[in-house]
Amino acid sequence: MPQKQYGGQAVIEGVMMRGNDNIAVAVRQEDGEITTKELMFNPWTKKFKFLKAPFVRGVFSLFQSLILGMRALTFSANQFAEEEEELTWWELTTSIGTALVLAILLFVVIPASVIEVIKAYIDSNLVLNLIEGVMKVSVLILYILSISQLNDIKRVFQYHGAEHKVINNYESDLDLKVENAKKFSTYHPRCGTNFLLIVMIVSILLFSFFGRPALINRILIHIALLPIVAGVSYELIKKAGQKDANKLFKWAAVPGLYLQRLTTSEPDDSQLEVAIKSLESVMENEKSN
């Protein structure tokens, strides 16, 4: 069984794979050729030893992953942009910053505001937290369903499936090739979709200890506790993704695996080829360093 764990994400017409200290982005060009960009990085958890502490490491690893993901997405988007209209780092950062603000609005502010209205009719904090949690999950599912109707997003979901198939292929010890990758599932327990769902479950449990403070205070508490929620969720995903994980952790990942039915699709051979190219580039870089 391979000792190293690889992860990645789908980008525009391609896949980014990540190793311990490098990433590779492989993109299928309009002429059919595959363009690959490789990038070395120094993990913050290695650079600053105190960041390796459990729960702390998750927050900083996720933040660094977001930055690397932005760079991968920028590269893939620029492959299909007109020269004078290429996306700059600032433009993409602004876009993602706006998306984060909207996420806080959708998953924190609006649910908390609705609960503020109905709490006069429900005495149980547990019930109110469950209702708030169901609202958050419902918003997430509706969002995924709505964007999945866009042709470009359908392609991204296929590349997402290709990423998972190829990683599952690698972790099986079978030769890394299209014929083998096709046999594997488009689902994976370490997927970011799982992470989002576990974040919501952890937040429901954690926020149940804070009663029902005033609306503004509740929103501020939600935002302030996001690093803790992210850190705990990261550890759960990390455990669930291990082959010898306790059954409890594996069961915790099951709802996220079902949710991946919405965020992954069956890829074609050419998309699997791109994902394999990306992973092979990462592995080759690790051998040479």
A few lines on this structure:
This protein is of the alpha+beta class.
Provide structural commentary.
It is a single chain. The chain is of the alpha+beta class and 289 residues long. It has one domain. The chain contains eleven helices and four strands, in the order ββββααααααααααα. The chain has helices spanning 44-47, 56-78, 89-118, 125-147, 151-172, 178-181, 192-207, 215-224, 226-240, 247-263, 269-288; strands at residues 7-11, 14-18, 22-28, 34-40. α9 (226-240) packs across α10. The longest helix is centred in the middle third of the chain and has 30 residues, at 89-118. The mean pLDDT is 87. The chain crosses the membrane at residues 55-77, 89-114, 126-145, 191-210, 216-237. Keywords: Membrane, Transmembrane, Transmembrane helix.
Helix-strand category:
alpha+beta
Strand content: 5-15%
Parts with pLDDT < 50 across at least 5 consecutive residues? none
Largest sheet: 4 strands, antiparallel
Mean pLDDT: 87
Transmembrane segments: 55-77, 89-114, 126-145, 191-210, 216-237
Keywords: Membrane, Transmembrane, Transmembrane helix
